[in-house]
TrEMBL record:
Location of the HTH cro/C1-type domain: 6-59
Protein name: HTH cro/C1-type domain-containing protein
GO molecular function: DNA binding
Lineage top rank: taxon: Bacteria
Top-level taxonomy: Bacteria, Pseudomonadati, Pseudomonadota, Gammaproteobacteria, Alteromonadales
C-alpha cells in the first residue's frame, strides 16, 4: 500500500496518527515516518496494520526489514558487522 492509501484507510476507520502515537507511547512523527516508509519500526507498523485490519506484508511489502523476524534480522546484522570488523 502507498502511504496515501494507508492514511486514507486509517481515516476511513476514524483513526489518526496522533491516536496511534498516544496509544503506543511514540511520537506522532515516528508514526508518520513509518507510514511514509522513511523510517521503520516493526512495533508501529504492526499497530498500523492491526488498525486497518491488514497483514504486515500486504501494507509494507516494499519495506525489507519487515520480511524477516526480529531474530533473523538481528542475526543478519551481526553477520554484516562481523564481516566489517574482520576486514
Amino acid at each position: 500500500m502507498t502511504p496515501k492509501e494507508i492514511k486514507a484507510e486509517l481515516k476511513a476507520r476514524g483513526y489518526s496518527n496522533k491516536m496511534l502515537a498516544e496509544i503506543l507511547g511514540k511520537s506522532v512523527s515516528a508514526v508518520g515516518q513509518v507510514i511514509n516508509k522513511t523510517s521503520y519500526s516493526r512495533e508501529i507498523a504492526e499497530a498500523v496494520c492491526k488498525a486497518i485490519d491488514k497483514d504486515l506484508l500486504d501494507v509494507f511489502h516494499d519495506v525489507k526489514p519487515y520480511h524477516h523476524s526480529k531474530s533473523q534480522l538481528r542475526e543478519q546484522k551481526k553477520q554484516e558487522l562481523a564481516q566489517l570488523l574482520s576486514a
